[in-house]
């Protein structure tokens, strides 16, 4: 880090006013919650956990995004929504529950093949009564997903429904997700006004959440660095997505995208391992270390990989770890042997 202390900068009214004015359905309930984890980092670096729980449908970063995405859909008169993501998607969990809370019908387009046994999030899709459609691809950016959503929406409209396609991989959906996320940093700046971190670490997939964080750091003229650990794509691809999402958010509110160049952005795929949804031994170790040192429970798909990257980084400076949720997937069976303590022989 440089010699200057990090700063949150100042709120940018053009950004905050725009975000506050976006329509919502009212599912986002709780601000981000912060607590210190002083014994977590093996190098002694100060770490603050910031959990983006949202308080709805097992929470996570998708709650405040879906609040606005479905707010837009309902404002447009939709009675049905269609979205698409991976087979165990947190986005689809929140969309399914939020659609029902808003009185909307819901279709989910999922990548892959129907499993013999449903995963934890898939159980929740079924409980919410979402209609599931499977497409034979594992590529998060395969256009077959958009084509399938469009076909479902067209069929629903032909049957008299007013249908909104919610695609978070492209604008305007990705831009709304990034704009929704900008409020996280404003909340962090209020909660940690006297102790901004040197770096924020979070996991990245489609780049919407990281793009929102980058956009608001730039808009505030903050001097906090951003590190994004990829859980989906190669680092170069994710970096381009994050920059694109951030630029679109700034452009939406009339701020110059050149502000992005003032923020230190690092994107790493060093903990990606075998790819999206494939746990690694480092992620499992980070998951356990985090639970035991801070009480935060991380999923193995996203957050544990980002925490593994943080714990492997011994550069001087303090960290804020943005925990983006995914709580149902915490209960997935561990792929590696546990290091549980041995009980005394003969103990009751």
Automatic annotation (TrEMBL):
Residue ranges of domain Tryptophan synthase beta chain-like PALP in the record: 31-325
Q: Which organism is it from?
A: Micromonospora craniellae
Q: Which cofactor does it need?
A: pyridoxal 5'-phosphate
GO BP = alpha-amino acid metabolic process
Q: Does the keyword Acetylation apply?
A: no
Keywords for this entry? Pyridoxal phosphate
Which InterPro entries does the annotation name?
A: ACCD_DCysDesulf (IPR027278), TrpB-like_PALP (IPR001926), TrpB-like_PALP_sf (IPR036052)
Question: What domain of life does the native source organism fall in?
Answer: Bacteria
Any idea what this protein is called?
Pyridoxal-phosphate dependent enzyme
Which family is this protein grouped under? Belongs to the ACC deaminase/D-cysteine desulfhydrase family.
A GO molecular-function annotation:
D-cysteine desulfhydrase activity
Which SUPFAM superfamilies does the annotation name? Tryptophan synthase beta subunit-like PLP-dependent enzymes
């Amino acid at each position: 880090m440089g010699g200057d202390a990090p700063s949150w900068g100042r709120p940018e009214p053009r950004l905050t006013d725009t975000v506050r004015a976006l329509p919502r359905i009212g599912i986002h309930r709780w601000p981000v919650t912060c607590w210190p984890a002083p014994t977590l980092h093996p190098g002694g670096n100060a770490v603050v956990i910031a959990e983006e729980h949202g308080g709805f449908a097992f929470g996570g970063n998708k709650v405040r995004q879906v609040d606005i995405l479905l707010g837009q859909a309902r404002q447009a008169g939709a009675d049905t929504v269609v979205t698409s993501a991976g087979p165990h998607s947190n986005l689809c969990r929140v969309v399914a529950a939020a659609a029902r809370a808003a009185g909307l019908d819901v279709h989910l387009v999922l990548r892959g093949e129907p499993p013999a046994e449903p995963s934890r999030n898939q159980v929740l899709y079924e409980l919410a009564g979402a209609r599931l459609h499977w497409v034979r691809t594992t590529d998060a950016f395969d256009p077959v997903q958009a084509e399938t959503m469009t076909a479902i929406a067209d069929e629903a409209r032909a049957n008299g429904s007013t249908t909104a396609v919610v695609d978070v991989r492209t604008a305007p959906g990705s831009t709304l997700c990034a704009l929704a996320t900008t409020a996280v940093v404003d909340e962090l700046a209020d909660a940690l006004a006297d102790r901004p971190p040197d770096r924020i670490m979070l996991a990245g997939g489609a780049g919407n959440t990281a793009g929102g964080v980058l956009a608001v750091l730039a808009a505030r003229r903050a001097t906090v660095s951003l590190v994004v650990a990829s859980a989906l794509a190669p680092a170069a691809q994710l970096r381009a997505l994050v920059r694109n999402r951030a630029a679109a958010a700034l452009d939406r509110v009339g701020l110059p995208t050149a502000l992005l160049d003032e923020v230190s952005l690092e994107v790493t795929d060093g903990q990606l391992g075998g790819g999206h949804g494939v746990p690694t031994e480092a992620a499992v170790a980070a998951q356990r270390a985090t639970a035991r040192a801070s009480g935060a429970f991380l999923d193995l798909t996203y957050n544990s990989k980002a925490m593994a990257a943080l714990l492997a980084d011994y550069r001087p400076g303090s960290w804020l770890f943005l925990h983006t949720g995914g709580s149902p997937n915490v209960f997935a069976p561990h792929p590696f042997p546990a290091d549980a303590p041995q009980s005394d022989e003969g103990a009751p």
